Amino acid sequence: MKIIITAHTKKRLRDWRQQEITVEDVISAAKGIPGYVPVATRFRGFTASFRRTFDLVIKDTLAGRLVITVIGK
């Protein structure tokens, strides 16, 4: 499935709270979610390569899996 990262997500990854979370971490976490997500849903408890915990808000569209935002812990 194609993973689409919004401009908002890319902007959030530059924020201090999302420090050490990379685009590759977000893509691998989004690909690891099984099934179809018809409405925007928050998935919790992913770990980045630098041991930073984060959440994702995901929605599946016709174009692919849309990563709406990332929330660092």
List the helices and strands and how they pair.
Blueprint: E1 3-5, H1 7-13, H2 23-31, E2 41-47, E3 53-60, E4 65-72
Parallel strand pairs: 1-4
Antiparallel strand pairs: 2-3, 3-4
Secondary-structure content class: alpha+beta
Count every helix, treating DSSP H or I runs of 4 or more residues as helices.
2
When the domains are counted, the total is 1
Distance N terminus to C terminus? Answer: 27 Å
Characterize the structure shown:
By secondary structure, the protein is of the alpha+beta class. The chain has one domain (3-72). The protein has helices at residues 7-13, 23-31; strands spanning 3-5, 41-47, 53-60, 65-72. The chain has a four-stranded mixed sheet. A hairpin with a 5-residue loop joins strand 2 (41-47) and strand 3. The radius of gyration is 11 Å and the shape is globular.
Short characterization:
By secondary structure, the chain is an alpha+beta fold. It has two helices and four strands, in the order E-H-H-E-E-E.
